[in-house]
Amino acid sequence: xxxxxxxxxxxxxxxxxxxxxxxxxxxxxxxxxxxxxxxxxxxxxxxxxxxxxxxxxxxxxxxxxxxxxxxxxxxxxxxxxxxxxxxxxxxxxxxxxxxxxxxxxxxxxxxxxxxxxxxxxxxxxxxxxxxxxxxxxxxxxxxxxxxxxxxxxxxxxxxxxxxxxxxxxxxxxxxxxxxxxxxxxxxxxxxxxxxxxxxxxxxxxxxxxxxxxxxxxxxxxxxxxxxxxxxxxxxxxxxxxxxxxxxxxxxxxxxxxxxxxxxxxxxxxxxxxxxxxxxxxxxxxxxxxxxxxxxxxxxxxxxxxxxxxxxxxxxxxxxxxxxxxxxxxxxxxxxxxxxxxxxxxxxxxxxxxxxxxxxxxxxxxxxxxxxxxxxxxxxxxxxxxxxxxxxxxxxxxxxxxxxx
Amino acid sequence: xxxxxxxxxxxxxxxxxxxxxxxxxxxxxxxxxxxxxxxxxxxxxxxxxxxxxxxxxxxxxxxxxxxxxxxxxxxxxxxxxxxxxxxxxxxxxxxxxxxxxxxxxxxxxxxxxxxxxxxxxxxxxxxxxxxxxxxxxxxxxxxxxxxxxxxxxxxxxxxxxxxxxxxxxxxxxxxxxxxxxxxxxxxxxxxxxxxxxxxxxxxxxxxxxxxxxxxxxxxxxxxxxxxxxxxxxxxxxxxxxxxxxxxxxxxxxxxxxxxxxxxxxxxxxxxxxxxxxxxxxxxxxxxxxxxxxxxxxxxxxxxxxxxxxxxxxxxxxxxxxxxxxxxxxxxxxxxxxxxxxxxxxxxxxxxxxxxxxxxxxxxxxxxxxxxxxxxxxxxxxxxxxxxxxxxxxxxxxxxxxxxx
Lengths: 404, 404
Hints:
Number of domains of chain A: 2
Oligomer: homodimer
CATH topology of the largest domain in chain A: Carbamate kinase
Mean pLDDT of chain A: 92
CATH class of the largest domain in chain A: Alpha Beta
């Protein structure tokens, strides 16, 4: 069987009109003789409404009941999609997670799918049926509804693609695909045809909010081709696949940027084992997300400088935490608002020397000062003044010929 | 185990505030050491919203998917009630019909509960848990969600009371109980303390819309005491029970009336077998609800007069159907708008002679003309001019001392 998994996000099924469009998309795959497994999210807005209700009931609403509550949203969307397909003359039906079943492990609100029973869905596919399956949920070994914490319906789609050895998993969403950089920032941004899992992971964690990193990682581990595309326009999207599938002579695949960051530098930190942990533990405890961390070697073996970035809104809290931290010893601390991180990402840089130099030269040509540098195998990030972000995106996009 | 089934209707769980009140009501029963089974409807308005969606998807929406769709409403309500009880420190949880399971038979949108597996709920009650169970639904033998056509959540509550041999089934709704007559019609109407199943059946079908007749009938067959009361005010409601439980020296329990009726009389109908069927078959086919039917004996053995009532809005349709009906033979047909049916109901009339006479005399004293009379064992109905309805209710209410 040639199986394709189609996943529709909340905005794709957000209205009756859009659900009808979704049925048309499914019809097209059916015409191409695919066996189709559909995974749907709840209609956009519904889940938030339900969560709001739970908060009004209790500021500490039971996790188990939260899962029963919010999982109703996908049930509604699936029955409507199935109803539309039946109306169009197809054999289709909704499948709730207990009917399959989809088993999860882990705690309520934050579980993971660990097993999908294949028998019923396989027979149904063989009979020519189109199963419409509730994303974002499963049941646990106690037969209670449990929702998937991270990745949501994307994670459900990837797991179905894995268990059913699907040829492809298509994620329908409200964007046309992954872009070389944020189109809202740079009009010249172009849709990327193909991107490796690794690049996508770097893009995702750096600001491309199309898919949750955990789902991309699951796709990577199971070597599942994922296509991200829009359910509104009939255009090909972006294929996320393994490196060796990509025939692409570009060195850089995309450029991402963050905004509203603040930089913290501890100068003259006593360099001894465990000092980094002492700094970051209280921040993490206070739910402050630390992004870039740069520490240089200690020139004298005694002291070092450590820089990290946080969201600007966390700055005053961070200041207090660092001041109150008795476990660390440093000469002075510097805080700076209004910085942004610009990163170039591309598997091509592994085999191409001089990429770092080209990036720095391009920024220098526009008199953009680089404050901090951090690199990984397929990514180079620099910290610059926030006001230079757009200028930096423009020159780097041009330098690495991404508009072509 | 002393078990009580508490059923909350849509208006009782219509808002977060009301759901909190429901949790308080449950708490009171818990304090009295009852084992409590809670059945909940969907929050008021939700089911209609979902049905509207299904109609926009298809004018012939799949019954199976309709059941998946609308059953989500009870799921939401149950998780919120359970969440509130947990918040208050009780052991509680939602139970979806597949988790119990509740089995149904019959077709989608119109099934009936025929079996409830007791094991899990019994253990849960023994552990001191409060199960909050989705009303109006079950699963069929194909493991598909199916909703209960008639009676809805009331029917679920009665079935749970039956299977668990509950001491009482309490139906919480938006009225305080059953009244001697419609309080909107007659301010002197009084709440009835106790009413027999049979009287309630007559009251229900005659306009008291508190409980569906099918659920009252189920309660009657299983000898389940049903209390109807308000979830808003702390007052005792009306107990529906078997005749022998009622210590009540009133002859008449209640008076009901219909409005907006029209009367149709066929004069000189050829009296032969099957003639009534020939008249009513095409009306039924056109979904015209025929209420009162009166046919007198044929004085000459050849011809008879037949009168029936319908809703006024069906009158023009009925006129056409009778005119087009080639299968019946009559001399002339009379139509009359603006009539209403007034009925007195009471098991007391069985053993009390002269009730009919007292009714007719009371009406005559107010110069109210009786057009048609129809009686059953515990009910006497008369057809009068619509404009006299209130006058009739007032005099009959007084005649049978219902305000006492």
